[in-house]
Amino acid sequence: MLIELIEKTKGQMLSSTWLERRDNSEYRQTLFRDLSRILLSLTRISLPAIGSFVVEKDGYLRLKNRPLSVEIQALENDHIPTDMLRDYTYSTVESYIVDLLRMHNNRVRHQRNAINHLIDYINQTAALATMQTTFPSFFTRDLCRGPFAFTFTDLHPSNIFVDDNWHITSLVDLEWACSRPIEMIRTSTWLTTKTMDEITEEAVEYDAARSEFLESMANEEKAMGVLLRKEGQITRSLSEIMNRSWQSGAFWFSLALSSPMGLFSVFYKQTQLRFIKHCPDQEAFHEIVPWYWSQDYVNVAAAKRQDRRDYDARLKAAFGVVDETN
Question: Quick one: residue 53, left, alpha or beta (phi over 0 = left, psi -120 to 50 = alpha)?
């Protein structure tokens, strides 16, 4: 374990001045340039698999652990099985996404308060069943086996330290950083003051901030001469891939995968809209699609309704509330 004390003279958390200065273009551009340089420095090194690094007893750093991100740990802390073996890495994007979706399925199955009522169960399983069938349309086939890149999965304003001019001086809480598909590198949701639910509802303001950030990154790519990979005559840059992910919807799909609680909001407000615009008659969607989520769909529904009743009863008992329904 490496521990470093960040002295006050070295900077303060970005969150301390974010709301006050975020509308100042000079501060914002300084931050975007520095953050772009950091991301470009990380992604210029192509990694062989999706996973996490471990420091072994011989002192060597090896990429041999599962890609442990903060949402995976949060689920396991709630005793929800993720079915992701600790010594397992992924060689393809598809295999990684399948296991992430299985993790979300497990949350529905094992979290006692995962559903509020039967309609909620239908909505959740319809979204998960659809995501399991549509993800190939979002991610580029020729990037399914790489490049993979070291990625920060918990990079928010309180984990970024800046000086008085908003130059980045330190990054903290890097335990959730791991190697991930290059198309899953996204601009952060905190670029505006909106929550995830708010940017999925109306993405115009966020898109403006996202575009400004990627313009800054493109300028840094030219200055640094950074290219991710060459395939024949095809040259790719990180800013181009991130822009394409926004256009294709891979941005929203990977954002949904990163949030067990936010997945359904992202799906219905962004992902599903990319399909129903060509098929406006969706009256039968919730009558048909949920049945394809799992072969034991009916049995799970009955179990989840009982789980919810048990959860509510235990919650009332914990707070000394008399259950008047009995």
Answer: beta
- Rounded to the nearest 10 degrees, the angle between the axes of helix 204-224 and helix 25-43 is 60
Long-range contacts of 262-265 (CB under 8 A, 24+ apart): 262/196, 262/197, 263/104, 263/127, 263/128, 263/131, 264/123, 264/124, 264/127, 265/196, 265/197, 265/200
Reported as type and span, the H/E element at residue 97 is helix 93-110
Closest CA to 161 of 276, 6, 326: 6
Tens of pLDDT, residue by residue over 109-136, are 999 999 999 999 999 999 999 999 999 9
Which residues 6+ apart lie within 8 Å of 168 measured at CB? 31, 34, 35, 38, 160, 161, 162
Number of Cβ atoms within 10 Å of the Cβ of 54? 13
Identify how many contiguous H helices and E strands the chain contains and give both numbers: 13, 9
The phi and psi torsions of 132 (rounded to 5 degrees) equal -70, -20
Phi, psi of 33 (to 5 degrees): -65, -45
Whole-angstrom distance, CA of residue 118 vs CA of residue 290: 12
Give the amino acid at 200: T
Does residue 322 carry a pLDDT above 80? no
What does the alpha-carbon distance between residue 79 and residue 273 come to, in Å, rounded to a whole number? 33
pLDDT at residue number 233: 44
pTM of the model: 0.90
Q: Element (H or E) spanning 40, and its range?
A: helix 25-43
Q: Is the pLDDT of residue 280 over 90?
A: no
CA 165 to chain centre: 29
